[in-house]
Amino acid sequence: MKIRARGRQLGFLAIVLLMLIVVIAALAVTYAAMLSRSTLSSGSHFGSMLALFEADSGLEYEQRRWAQNLDWYRSVTDPNPPVAAAQAFGTGTFAVNSSLPATLVKTRLLPAATTLTVYTTDRFPASGILQIEEDLTSAGEFVRYTGIAGNTFTGLTRAQLVGTVSNPAGSLAHARGDAVYPVTILRTAMAANCTPLASIQVDANSKFLSAGTLDIEGEEIGYAGSTTSGGTMTLTGITRCLGLVTLVAHALGQPATPVNVGGDSASYEAELAAVGTQGGNIRYARRTIQR
Question: Of 8, 96, 99, 178, whose CA is between 20 and 30 Å from 211?
Fold first, then answer.
């Protein structure tokens, strides 16, 4: 009887030992899988950080190049192509696109002219409104155009009323080198105060920067970001009352233009967008710069 009982005990212990071996083996497999995932995650995170470093390095590289450019707006294209070539840096690459919110007159515009030749029509809409020169109370003018041929705006209608803003001087001559801005239309009424706003809306215009500064009836308004949907551009992170202004309310339908001339600078604002790549990791960075 004792021998039989001892045999049962040994059999039971063998079963327990087998179960322990199975459990330990399962734990080992689970740990190995967790370790593998952790290693992959760590490697992916490190690669992502390197890709962001590549993108930031691209912005620094391009900003330095722009600082050496004496006049941004005399470029015959936006300074980089729509699909920028990747440049090797360290063990990865970066590619940078640059965007400008305006251009300059290339061929003198006479009062009766119906075409306007500029340095570049890149990113201007196929038809729309332009503002030539800054001060509409003296030499400035709103112009509507119906088409683009190369670097020439065609089908001009001169001295236009936009919203309630007119051109008191009428149709004038404009010299080579005068600023040419895209014009869009305000779709959010703004009270006469400096209270920051979460957002405002304007008609979408591909020439406008995704973040930058607008002029609305003489008030400079900063925006930190934007989205575009259904022909409407929503500007976010609004800062009002930049610079010296006589503050007024802005009604729906008033014209809005980018700000690119400030003080003695002929090239005031531009936007850089970089893509950094490290292995399979891709990161993006964007910066608005001012001279």
Answer: 178
